[in-house]
Amino acid sequence: MTSPDSHRVIDQRIDRVVPLTTPALLHHHLPLDAALTEAVLDGRRAVARVLDRADDRLLVVVGPCSVHDPAAALEYAARLRTVADRLADDLLIVMRVYFEKPRSTVGWKGLINDPALDGSGDVNTGLRTARALLLDVLRLGLPVGCEFLDPITPQYIADTVAWGAIGARTVESQVHRQLASGLSMAIGMKNRPDGSIGTAVDAIRAAGVPHVFPGIDVSGTPAIMHTRGNADGHLVLRGGNDGPNYDAASVAAALAQLRAAGLPERVVVDASHANSGKDHRRQPLVAADVAAQLAAGQRGIVGVMLESFLLPGRQDLDPTRELEYGRSITDACLGWDDTEGVLDDLAAAVRARRATPATTSPTPTSTPA
């Protein structure tokens, strides 16, 4: 019971409060059926086997920077499924289906927060739209990957996800490390925007042990979460303010930091962000350098991330102009044709790696982009 004067001190900067649907109700309306449940579990097991090197394929997380148009994203998924089947012997392809966009200052915060792209903030519709798309992608036969930003959102969508990430801006957050410790899939920890690897290594260690923290359960009820720890944490190299970190020397240094921390020596290389200088046209150059490392026997690289959509580049979100179908409204992405070529090259590198002794002391194979 609140005091008669509580209105004077509570929610003084809240304009309005809208009831939020519960995870259980959303799951009821958009259920993960038995077949899709098995697909998610199969995807999680496959990712874990690649991370543990029980499967010598390369994990590739590829898709739009952030989904803004479910129809275009589903068309992309249909194309990706065909390539995933063709390259299945060499690549474990997971579709990047990101719905939350972290912002340094202001801007569109993603499909869940603003599905109408107009600042109206209809989160209930955003959650329904996001979950419906995830189910559609699963029905096509693709595992799903996403970044977890809001600590409440996972109860609504995490049951569909095979691979997850904690982003560069939140990797130092205790809240996100605790969240990762209880998530049911492998979690990649990105290095900080300034390039710090140690912060991400600390995050992997922190997420690997049990935690107790407040959250919500699937019914939407406030609850105390007791986690077991996540043994499938791994490092994602995305470059930093002082330059890229995908080259062989940087990869070797990152693996050495993991070894010194007593963690599995495995990294995923993000070909976008600071590794490409935020220039989508340089992603193939990054991927080519990584492919050369793989072909030379580097087994510490277990995965690659690519930002890719139907059309190359990006466009501004302009309320006075109709958006171009299939082009990103956040970070610039590779177009489909270039994406398919990069995937073919990565698959060829995996085949070459199988015939090559493991690299023990990597040396740079090219100049970083």
Automatic annotation (TrEMBL):
Record key words, sorted: Amino-acid biosynthesis, Aromatic amino acid biosynthesis, Transferase
List, alphabetically, the InterPro entries matched. Answer: Aldolase_TIM (IPR013785), DAHP1/KDSA (IPR006218), DAHP_synth_1 (IPR006219)
Q: Which GO terms describe its cellular component?
A: cytoplasm
- Which reactions appear under catalytic activity for this entry? D-erythrose 4-phosphate + phosphoenolpyruvate + H2O = 7-phospho-2-dehydro-3-deoxy-D-arabino-heptonate + phosphate
Record Pfam families: DAHP_synth_1
Entry's Gene3D superfamilies? Aldolase class I
Supply the EC number(s): 2.5.1.54
Residue span(s) of domain DAHP synthetase I/KDSA: 51-342
Q: In which pathway does it act?
A: Metabolic intermediate biosynthesis; chorismate biosynthesis; chorismate from D-erythrose 4-phosphate and phosphoenolpyruvate: step 1/7
Q: Name one GO molecular function term.
A: 3-deoxy-7-phosphoheptulonate synthase activity
Gene Ontology terms: biological process: amino acid biosynthetic process; aromatic amino acid family biosynthetic process; chorismate biosynthetic process
Q: Which family does it belong to?
A: Belongs to the class-I DAHP synthase family.
Q: Tell me, in a sentence or two, what this protein's role is.
A: Stereospecific condensation of phosphoenolpyruvate (PEP) and D-erythrose-4-phosphate (E4P) giving rise to 3-deoxy-D-arabino-heptulosonate-7-phosphate (DAHP).
What protein am I looking at?
Phospho-2-dehydro-3-deoxyheptonate aldolase
